[in-house]
Amino acid sequence: MLSVTNKQHLAQKEVDALANCNSQSHIIAVQSQSTEKSRIVMLSRDDVNGWQLFLRFFNLGKLANTKVYLSEITPYLNEYKWSDVSKYAKTSSYHRAYLKVCDLANKAVVKAQDLSLFNNVSKIKVKKEIKFTLYHGSDRLNRFNVVKHIRWNPLMQYQTLSTLLHKEFSRSAVQLNYHGSQDGDGPMMKEGLSEAGLQKVKIIVSQRIPRSEHLPSGHFRNAIA
Question: What global pTM score does this model have?
Answer without folding.
Answer: 0.87
